[in-house]
Design brief:
Bound molecules: 4'-deoxy-4'-aminopyridoxal-5'-phosphate
Oligomer: single chain
Distance between the termini: 10 Å
CATH class of the largest domain: Alpha Beta
Number of domains: 3
CATH superfamily of the largest domain: D-amino Acid Aminotransferase, subunit A, domain 2
Radius of gyration: 20 Å
Strand content: 25-35%
CATH architecture of the largest domain: Alpha-Beta Barrel
Number of strands: 17
Number of helices: 9
Helix content: 25-40%
Largest sheet: 9 strands, mixed
Structural class: alpha+beta
Length: 333
C-alpha cells in the first residue's frame, strides 16, 4: 500500500505544476483516484470546464453511501444496490440519459473503493449535464458520471451520535413537490438545504428542520425526521421529502423489533411534545435530537427507543445481523 506521505507529495506536485487550477485550502480527506466515466483518474486531475451546464444550473443527480468495515475483515457498502437504483430513478425524473445501469454504477463504486484501498468511508456518485448548450434545454449535452470516495466521520459533529443535537425550525419552507422534484436527489434541490443549514448553523443550532408548503414537518437539510410519542414511532410521509434509504432501513428495523411505525403528517408543536426524536440519513446515520426551537425533547437525551434503534442500525450496517445480509454490498481491500 502506498504511504500517506507519497500520496501527499504527489498531491503537492500536482498542485504546484497546475498553475491553471484552483485549489482551496483542503477541509476534507482526499483519496487517490476518482472514477470518471469508466476511467480511474488521479484525484487532482478529475476536472471539468467552467462552462459545464451543471455548475450553472444544478443539473446533476447524485448519491451518498457509506462503506463500513465489518467484523470478518471484509467491508460492505450499505444498501449499495438501493442507492444505485435511486440514482437511476433521479436521472429518470430529471430526463437525463444516463449511459449506465444501476448494476454498472454499483460495480464502479466497489472498483473505486478498492482502487483507493478504502475499507470504510463515504461514496459519492454524481451524474451531471456536461459542457455544450448553455441554455436550459441541454438535450445534446453529454451526461457524465464521477464516483469519489473519501473517509468521512460523524456528519453532525463529534458527540452527535451519542449526545444528540439541537435543531431549529427553518424560516425556509421545503420546496413543494411540484416546484422541484423531491424524489430526485438532484443537486439543484440542495440550494433549499443550503439556505436552511447555513441559517441554522449561524443561529447556533446543529441542523435545520424544514416545514412543507402546508406547514407540516417535512425533513432536515440532509436527513429524514422521526419522532416517538407514547411508544409510537412516526415519520413524515413520502410527499415533500427525499425517500431516505436510512429512513426505510429504520422503519424496517423498528417493525421487526415490534414497534408500531406510522408514516403520518405532524406539526412542529407535536414535535415539541414528543418523548424522543431523531434524524436519519446516510451521512448522519441515526442521530438523536435533544432540543427543537429551545424546547427540550423528552428527557433531553437519546431516549430508549432511539438508543435501541441506533444500536440495531450499527449492528446491521457492520454485518452483525445476518437477517439483513441482502442489504450489504461486500468488497475486500
Ligand atoms: N433528505 C435529504 C434532503 C437528504 O439529502 C438525505 C440524504 N441523502 C436524506 C433525506 C436521507 O436519505 P438517505 O437515508 O438515503 O441518505
Amino acid at each position: 500500500m502506498r504511504s500517506i506521505f507519497v500520496i501527499c507529495m504527489e498531491s503537492e506536485y500536482i498542485k504546484q505544476h497546475s498553475p491553471d487550477a484552483y485549489f482551496c485550502e483542503e477541509s476534507m480527506q482526499t483519496t487517490q483516484f476518482i472514477w470518471f466515466d469508466g476511467k480511474m483518474v488521479p484525484w487532482y486531475q478529475a476536472r471539468i470546464h467552467v462552462l459545464t451546464h451543471a455548475l450553472h444550473y444544478g443539473s446533476a443527480v447524485f448519491e451518498g453511501m457509506r462503506a463500513y468495515a465489518c467484523a470478518d475483515g471484509r467491508s460492505s457498502v450499505f444498501r449499495l444496490n438501493d442507492h444505485c437504483a435511486r440514482l437511476v430513478n433521479s436521472a429518470k425524473i430529471m430526463r437525463f440519459d444516463l449511459p449506465y445501469t444501476a448494476a454498472r454504477i454499483a460495480e464502479a463504486c466497489l472498483e473505486t473503493l478498492k482502487a483507493n484501498k478504502l475499507g470504510e468511508g463515504y461514496v459519492r456518485p454524481l451524474s451531471f449535464v456536461g459542457y455544450g448548450e448553455m441554455g436550459v434545454f441541454p438535450r445534446d449535452n453529454p451526461v457524465q458520471t464521477i464516483i469519489a470516495v473519501w473517509p468521512w466521520g460523524s456528519y453532525l459533529g463529534a458527540g452527535a451520535l451519542e449526545n444528540g443535537i439541537r435543531v431549529k425550525t427553518s424560516s425556509f419552507t421545503r420546496m413543494h413537490a411540484n416546484t422541484l422534484m423531491t424524489k430526485a436527489k438532484a443537486s439543484g434541490n440542495y440550494i433549499n438545504s443550503i439556505l436552511a443549514k447555513v441559517e441554522a448553523r449561524e443561529d447556533g443550532y446543529d441542523e435545520a428542520v424544514m416545514l412543507d408548503a402546508s406547514g407540516f414537518v417535512s425533513e432536515a437539510s440532509g436527513e429524514n425526521i422521526f419522532i416517538v410519542r407514547d411508544g409510537i414511532i412516526k415519520t413524515t410521509p413520502w410527499t415533500s421529502i427525499l425517500g431516505g434509504i436510512t429512513r426505510d432501513t429504520v422503519m424496517r428495523l423498528a417493525c421487526d423489533l415490534g414497534y408500531t411505525v406510522e408514516e403520518q403528517q405532524f406539526t412542529r408543536d407535536e414535535f415539541y411534545i414528543a418523548d424522543e426524536a431523531f434524524l436519519t440519513g446516510t451521512a448522519a446515520e441515526l442521530t438523536p435530537i435533544h432540543e427543537l426551537d429551545r424546547r427540550v425533547i423528552g428527557a433531553g437525551q437519546a431516549g430508549p427507543v432511539t438508543k435501541r434503534l441506533q444500536a440495531e442500525f450499527f449492528n446491521v450496517v457492520r454485518g452483525g445481523n445476518h437477517g439483513y445480509d441482502s442489504w450489504l454490498g461486500w468488497y475486500t481491500v
